[in-house]
Design a protein that fits this description.
Helix content: 40-55%
Distance between the termini: 12 Å
Structural class: alpha/beta
Bound molecules: 2'-deoxycytidine-5'-monophosphate
CATH superfamily: P-loop containing nucleotide triphosphate hydrolases
Number of strands: 8
CATH class: Alpha Beta
CATH topology: Rossmann fold
Strand order of the largest sheet: 2-6-1-7-8
Shape: globular
Amino acid sequence: MIVAIDGPAGSGKSSISLQLALKYGFVYLDSGAMYRSVTLACLKNGVDVYNEAEVTRVAKESQIEFLYDQDGKQTVLLNGEDVTGDIRSSAVNAVVSVVSAHPSVRTALLDAQRAYGQKTSVVAEGRDTATTVFPNADLKIFLDASPETRALRRIEQNKQKGMLDDPDALDFEKVLESIRKRDEIDSSRAASPLKPAEDSIIIDTSPLTFDEVFSLISRYIDAFLVQQN
Ligand code: DC
């Protein structure tokens, strides 16, 4: 089964997708972490993020691996180096939308993303997993929430990740502004913009708790699995 969950930054899709993958024993694909890793590789190597050819070269040369422990704690390796914290830094947040707007960077990462769905069931999460990566996904969900709700959630997440020495990561106005800016770039780009697929189920999570969203999507997955058996 392929479950594709898209939505803007802070809509709750990462934690929901990861927990669904753990519950059902599906593989979890965090496509945003791939764009973040390429962005970090550019920043580390002094590559101009606006230079599409150079960024594409970095994307092709980057080896990105994900490890998960039994609680679902993620470790991201970039060319063998642990970059789990660094890919969530404000520096990466500030330019990841520039990197992910380059069409040839997206193409360079597409095969690796699709490979996840070839062998096993997967919960794929990002901006275009239902529209471009897995257009034939069995279940497509688009999670949305107001920018203010998303900013508050992102701050909470950053606190839990221990980003206490990054003041920008905990400042409401700054996080809100960064979310609005990324929404704007992600939605208006030509290549695979952030938008629900025609057959996506759209869920506004603003008034809902994590558990409510989780059990709602679980019911859709259960219904699909029952139908298959
Ligand atoms: O979900 P996230 O915040 O980790 O995503 C980081 C950036 O990557 C986000 O600004 C948009 C981009 N992205 C994308 O363009 N396509 C995806 N499938 C996933 C993320």
